Give the backbone structure.
Amino acid sequence: MRILTRAIAAAALVLSSGALHAETYPARSITLIVPFAAGGPSDAIARLVGQSMSQSLGQQVVIENVAGAGGTAGAARAAKADPDGYTLLIHHVALAAGASLYPKLTYDTMTAFAPLGLVNSGPMVLMSKKDYPANDAAALIAKLKADGMKATLAHAGVGSNSHLCTLLLQKALGVTFTQVAYRGTGPAMNDLMSGQVDVLCDQSTTAVPQIEGNTVKGFAVTSKERLPVLKDLPTLQEAGLKDFAFTIWHGLYAPAGTPPEVVATLNKALLQALDDKNVQARFAEVGTQLFPADQRTPAAHQAQFAREVATWQAVIGKNEAKN
């Protein structure tokens, strides 16, 4: 009887400890991995959302930039982390594309992560250095098509959004450019501003401030409709690429196996951050928008992610990373 009593007491202690853990999460700071260099669009979004989430969680969300390999280095770090809710990942559509671009990943893209919720979406913007000899979208497209390998197009690394945009642009124009890879959008943008490369296709998050600051030339957006904050720039479809459309989205992830109650807590904090008027205003300023409220659940995020993996498998194929 004494043995049975002790066993029951021990079981009760374990259950109460688990309940206490769930009730007190988070008990310390949370690391949010950004798989790109500081200063890029994903970094800016992570810091904006992370700061707001810190307030609702009652613990600091600390940004850690783990750049390299088109975002897969940071993703690998997150995939290997303990599934306790203290290491998170923010990533964009390149996480889904990476399944096709990198056949030897150290993680299974479809099973390594627990989606926490969709953050924002927006178009890419086609830009050039200030002295590039084209003054409108049609002229830029014509010159790129004529120059081919003579044109240098920067991107933030294989698998990055800017790389994917470059691949789509090559396919649309039927030419191959000289691609210049960087370890993130920040370094790529710096070289575009200094005239070291000709063209960059990147997210509106970083494009809008530079175009408005007149440090680069803006030509077109990749969405089906014009961007209100850059209303004078046509879409690439308007410029003659009739079927060209490319929209970027970000989502938050935890390692697979994270307890459901922790996922729920993090999703709630994300939703509160996205309802923050300051966050919404900042997103609008840089040309991105929130997903509809009914699409901000982990389930909706998982469905979106699965669709994107399938889409990029068809677009990229198994050997596109060699380009």
User: Anything to note?
Assistant: The first strand starts at residue 30 and ends at 34.
